[in-house]
Amino acid sequence: MTGSTDGLGLAAARTLLNEGHEVLLHARSRERAAALDGLAPQAAGIVIGDLSSAAATRDLAWQVNAHGRMDAIIHNAGVYVSPGRVATAEGHSRTLAVNVLAPYLLTALIERPARLIYISSGMHHGAGGDLRDIDWTARRWNAGAAYSESKLYVSALAASVARHWPAVLSNSVDPGWVPTKMGGAGAPGDLAMGHDTQRWLAVSDDPAALVSGKYFHHRRQRSPAPEVTDTDFQDRLTDRLAGLTGTTLFPRNERAAGA
């Protein structure tokens, strides 16, 4: 569970632990891990890594693999709007790095689990599908557009994983606008429902949860933006992400074989 120290990640982790599941928690730093002191005794462990850093994300994948194969991974961590383009150590937009490049790298580098869940947003419907400047190096920065695009990309990544890895259940989830630190205290959504669907997809044997390549909101399948299920868009996106990270998720021969 990435982003376990607050918000939806913390709520989902707490619920899973209370239900008796083993949960490997994640914090951005050792200082942030202190927020998990109350859950740590119940947890399978805590892994540390700043997802805005490619080097730290790669190290995080190594830490997870050292714990053994996961049954499910929830890519929950994310950042919202930023007044300006904040560059990471590698020069990427922090919004793209945390919301897209990190889940892409972790998907590529962590041993394949049985289930993958990626946190999206209904805002992805308002994103443009032009992939020429996904890192916002040429365009004038627009925080809302950058966030919406990042959620379009992660939704398409989830669908692409489902297509290439049929043995893995891979889905994306819109948790709604909920009152977390990211969403703000005035958000109208239900916090309990906001973390319920990803928890359900991670552990449930309900036939409705045993699907792949879908986009969910409050346990119901919804129609994502057309780009999400467009296989050409998926392939162009993962090619761009491979170029930006130096890590190939779907080799050409794997694409051809449909592995």
What does this structure look like?
The chain has 259 residues and is an alpha/beta fold. It is 39% helix and 11% strand. It has helices at 7-18, 30-33, 54-66, 94-109, 143-164, 191-203, 231-245, 252-257, and strands spanning 24-27, 45-48, 72-75, 115-119, 169-173, 215-217, 220-222. The strands form two sheets. Strands 3-4-5-6-7 form a five-stranded mixed sheet, with helices on both faces. Helix 5 links the parallel strand 4 and strand 5. The protein is globular. The two termini are 26 Å apart.
SSE topology sketch:
Blueprint: H1 7-18, E1 24-27, H2 30-33, E2 45-48, H3 54-66, E3 72-75, H4 94-109, E4 115-119, H5 143-164, E5 169-173, H6 191-203, E6 215-217, E7 220-222, H7 231-245, H8 252-257
Parallel strand pairs: 1-2, 3-4, 4-5, 5-6
Antiparallel strand pairs: 6-7
Helix pairs in contact: 1-6, 3-4, 4-5, 4-7, 5-7
